[in-house]
Automatic annotation (TrEMBL):
Inorganic ion transporter that transports phosphate or copper ions across the mitochondrial inner membrane into the matrix compartment. Mediates proton-coupled symport of phosphate ions necessary for mitochondrial oxidative phosphorylation of ADP to ATP. Transports copper ions probably in the form of anionic copper(I) complexes to maintain mitochondrial matrix copper pool and to supply copper for cytochrome C oxidase complex assembly. May also play a role in regulation of the mitochondrial permeability transition pore (mPTP). The keyword Transmembrane applies. It holds the Pfam family Mito_carr. Gene3D superfamilies: Mitochondrial carrier domain. One of its GO terms (molecular function) is phosphate transmembrane transporter activity. GO terms for cellular component: mitochondrial inner membrane. It catalyses: phosphate(in) + H(+)(in) = phosphate(out) + H(+)(out). This is Solute carrier family 25 member 3. It is a multi-pass membrane protein. Solcar repeats lie at residues 58-141, 154-238, 255-333.
Length: 356
């Protein structure tokens, strides 16, 4: 049996306000019952039996594993675009995406486009573990603190708080490898591999070299992750309401995965926009020794922080779509539980006079 409060959380509209929820409940009360209630499944879910209990240790570990697979593989796959994006942000000769690819191939050959793949894979695998795994943990924790009724009424705030809390720890795990990645990609001749770069950075600046970018990372990734989860949920709902010609429960697994991918890409565009200025600061900060975030921000100016936005929209849109697609696929493969849509608790209905 799933925890009641968390059952109500699942696939909730993350932009719902309590007033909307109450009005919706009243509308539902006026709708005649259509027979026994059936469990509606989330995007890409399967009708087979669940392999574990919702919120169990196995469930949380497999969610973390899904995060490793989705984030590690996707970020590594777009390393060439990420490299050009970083160089657009910090290197003067790079003027556009096409120009950046041409210059990179001319200077380093085709293999140069793969620079930084090792720290990217390791760093973002660790970040994915914490992001998706801790998100589930914090969702359970905050839900228990809030109680059943407040979990339902303020589920938007719960989603945002859980994702922000998870990303706080995810960025601490990511920071060392992100610092190495940016140094390899944006400082020609400094180092070509992680084995060269990490010892050299440590010898020059100590442990601080790996964590000086963690605050800008928080500035970039926490808004990104909050948008990633909230916008994805809202977009999935709108797609099923306005674009998909049949109810989600009647869609095949493949059709649901297409919706997941589409919603993920749309969410990724918004994620890229809200987090790009901080991403520019991180790129410059990890390239230059001895700089601070405030110094870099002043140096870049209002226009400089938006350089490379188009490349990042393409990269983050693709990344976010693939991450949700892979993460959902992992949940389907391991038959992880998918709680039904949220319903107003009976106790709250009685308080509001919606039931006798």
């Amino acid at each position: 049996m799933y925890p009641t409060a968390l059952t109500q959380l699942a696939r909730a509209n993350p932009f719902s306000a309590p007033l909307f929820s109450l009005q919706r409940a009243e509308e539902l009360q006026q709708t005649p019952a259509a027979g026994p209630a059936t469990r509606r499944l989330a995007a890409a879910a399967t009708a087979e039996g669940d392999s574990c209990e919702f919120g169990s240790q196995k469930y949380l570990l497999l969610c973390g594993f899904g995060g490793i697979v989705s984030c590690g593989l996707t970020h590594t796959a777009v390393v060439p675009l990420d490299l050009v994006k970083c160089r657009l942000q910090v290197c003067e000769p790079y003027k556009s995406i096409g120009n950046g690819f041409r210059l990179t191939v001319r200077e380093d050959g085709a293999r140069g486009l793969a620079k930084g793949w090792a720290p990217t894979f390791i760093g973002y695998s660790m970040q994915g573990l914490c992001k998706f795994g801790f998100y589930e943990v914090f969702k359970i924790f905050y839900s228990d603190l809030m109680g059943e009724e407040n979990t339902y009424l303020w589920r938007t705030s719960l989603y945002l708080a859980a994702s922000a809390s998870a990303e706080f720890f995810a960025d601490i795990a990511l920071a060392p490898m992100e610092a190495c990645k940016v140094r390899i990609q944006t400082k020609p001749g400094y180092a070509n591999t992680l084995r060269e770069c990490a010892p050299k950075m440590y010898a020059e600046e100590g442990v601080w070299a790996f964590y000086k970018g963690v605050v800008p990372l928080w500035m970039r990734q926490i808004p990104y992750t909050m948008m990633k989860f909230a916008c994805f949920e809202r977009t999935v709902e709108l797609l099923y309401k306005y674009a998909v010609p049949k109810p989600r429960s009647e869609c095949s697994k493949s059709e649901q995965l297409v919706v997941t991918f589409t919603a993920g890409y749309i969410a990724g565009v918004f994620c890229a926009i809200v987090s790009h200025p901080a991403d520019s600061v991180v790129s410059v900060l990890n390239k230059e020794s001895g700089s601070t975030a405030s110094q870099v921000l002043k140096k870049l100016g209002p226009r400089g922080v938006w350089k490379g936005l188009v490349a990042r929209i393409i990269m983050i849109g693709t990344l976010t779509a693939l991450q949700w697609f892979i993460y959902d696929s992992v949940k389907v493969y391991f038959r992880l539980p998918r709680p039904p849509p949220p319903e107003m608790p009976e106790s709250l209905k009685k308080k509001l006079g919606l039931t006798e």
